Amino acid sequence: MQRSLIITAAVIVLLGIGVGTYFLFFNNAPSVSVTLTDGTTLPVAGQGTPPSTTTTGTTGTSTPSTSITAPVAVSSRLIQISKGPIVPGAVVVGSRAASATSSADVAVSYIERESGNVFSYSTRTRTLTRTNNRTVPGLQSALWLPNGSLAFTRYLSGADFSTINTYALPANGTGGFFLSQNLNDIAVSAAGILTLSSGVNGSSASLLRPDGTRPTTIFSTPLSSLRVSFAGKQYLATTKASATLPGNAFLVNSSGDFSRVAGPHDGLAALASPLGKWVLVSYILNAAMQMELVNIATGEALSLPVATIADKCVWAADDSAVYCGIPVNPPAGAAYPDDWYQGAIHFSDRIWKIQVSGRYAQLVLDFPKETKGSLDVVSPAINPANTLLVFINKNDGSLWGYSL
User: Fold this and answer.
1) Can you spell out the DSSP letters for 371-401?
2) To bridge 91 with a disulfide, which of 32, 42, 307, 369 should be the other Cys (CB 3.0-4.6 Å)?
3) 175 or 23: which carries more pLDDT confidence?
4) Which residues of the chain form CATH 2.130.10.10?
């Protein structure tokens, strides 16, 4: 009897470690599409590249599938690209010269959670294509280079699911490489790959070329449990958001010097604009969500008329506006943002556009009114021309696109 209790306790501990690792590293990580090679297993660090592909057509081309469920047009501007569930996130690639009236194609790529199959949606033809049919369940997140050529996939492995792997996979499924194991966070831009390693002695961030070579140390700090991202030519380092701990957001220059731009605030989360002019900050004050814009040049913090968690927002490519899922009547008494990250609560959102000039908010999409359903926005993304907004409904994992 005692032996059975010991075995049962050991199993519970191992499962707890796996679940804890998931929430520590993936509970609020943005992710985008994955293009994976044909096969049946995930790559394992130290064991080379994934199995060679078995293609169903010319290498590098897309193969349409008759079994794909067609996208559903809810209105002239709103379309359900996939019923899901999908791996959180989508990459949006298109011509910067595109406009609302042009015929320039915008591609939306995503990965189906259950099968690991990769799909691409074309706004010009409104058709969906399976670009790779390898079965690879278990992916937690992925980040793409802006041109969609390379994906950095993240997943857990090991007997206790405590090892975090980051594998860079080209969109054509050929080749690839591993980054270091157990990275605390990564960020991707045209400038390269920003990686963060954390331990008992603090954190260290490095910048790598897009091919994973020539790492350069950006900063080292005694702070741990950080999130990192690009902020124009600088970097944004933010303590991981918690309802019970005051958080801070710091700008880090190329010399590794820290300057605080926000905080300390409970539940603080931050999102830097692409050109590095602004930082969107959300936090909790008197049990209510607050949101403000921080002018990086002056340090001035400007309150906004609506509030949400910064992770439910995405910046326009030109820093002119930010689009957010704003909850209607968020549940009272919840620990924000922890309960939302962990799935203990869900929101019913409408999507608003917050114009930086004037700081006014404009309703973009009343999702419940158009679909009669509830929307909890996660991993929003926008194309460089600011003509297509895509987002995932956390309530069911479905993927949507809205023409701006």
Assistant:
1) HSS---EEEEEE-TTS-EEEEEETTTTEEEE
2) 32
3) 175
4) 227-365
